Amino acid sequence: MYKRIPAHIGIIPDGNRRWAEENGLHKKDGYAYGVPPGFLLYEMMVEYGVKEATFYGFTKDNNKRAVEQRDAFTKACIDAVETLANRDAELLVIGNIDSVAFPKELLPYANRRVRFGRNLIKLNFLVNYDWAWDLKKGMEQGDIASADISRIDLIIRWGGRRRLSGFLPVQSVYSDLYVIDTYWPDFKKEHFHEALAWYQDCDVTLGG
What we know:
- It is a single chain.
- Helix 3 (about 35-45) runs parallel beside helix 4.
- By secondary structure, the protein is an alpha/beta fold.
- The chain is built from six helices and seven strands; from the N terminus they run βαααβαβββαββα.
- The radius of gyration is 16 Å and the shape is globular.
- It has helices at about 15-20, 30-35, 35-45, 65-85, 130-140, 190-200, and strands at about 10-15, 50-60, 90-95, 115, 120-130, 155-160, 175-180.
């Protein structure tokens, strides 16, 4: 169906809080509704032969939000990672584990790859991620903290915002960015197909 499938796709699942408010819920409630779409997208990426995917969980800056929101998006990340740990994937969680904001439940998957099942896809989650922390590791130790994550071919962002929000600045340097106005909890399979169809006409020059 598609001649070109990006080897690595970045996922920015934005719009959970706006979705919650528009549906008469508290902002914090939107994060739980953002977990199921991730599994549907995971299955589609496996079906189409995507080799690696990186999901934006939460960032250091997200911790500035109200405590009930922080608790909600932390729980959503824990639920997503622990469920995916039972799927066919090689799992890597990247984030600053020295911070109290990093959930202890995810320490077994932190900053190292853990293989589950048939290892059909590499799945990366950015949890308590900070781009400055990532790059600082590179300056101090010779390798950025996210060095085990490959260059990203296509980034898909839900929620209508047209920015990267600090998403893996090194790996995103040549990424194509496709923005979907729909909020993440309203994910539909057509969104992924639209992004792949758009990607077919993207030229990959890597600056050349």
